[in-house]
Design brief:
A hairpin with a 4-residue loop joins strand 2 and strand 3. This protein folds into 2 domains: about 30 residues; about 60 residues, no CATH class. By secondary structure, the chain is an alpha+beta fold. The chain is about 40% helix and about 20% strand.
Length: about 90
């Protein structure tokens, strides 16, 4: 029951974000974000976190800091949010 409420909450937040982009008056002031989701099986959480820690260490060693934010949900879904300057960065 709680998971269903949480998923509905996530969908409503995404809906609000997308509708705010549609009705925006000036696209120059809109901050776009890249969202990456990694669903992790419960038995592999330790391996995933070990790999993610190594990845962050390599990013710091190579001066690659995009300022991303990471958060984890109760169902072992790792979410990464990083700002985009423009859509060309997706290439």
């Amino acid at each position: 029951m709680i998971m269903r409420i949480f998923k509905v909450f996530k969908l409503s937040v995404l809906f609000c974000l997308f509708t705010s982009l549609i009705f925006a008056q000036d696209n120059a002031n809109i901050q776009r974000y890249l969202v990456h989701l990694d669903p992790v099986k419960p038995g592999k959480v330790a391996d995933y976190e070990k790999t993610a820690t190594a990845f962050v260490k390599m990013c710091k060693e190579n001066s690659y800091d995009q300022g991303w934010v990471t958060f984890v949900t109760e169902d072992n879904e790792y979410n990464y949010l990083s700002p985009l300057k423009n859509f060309a960065e997706l290439d």
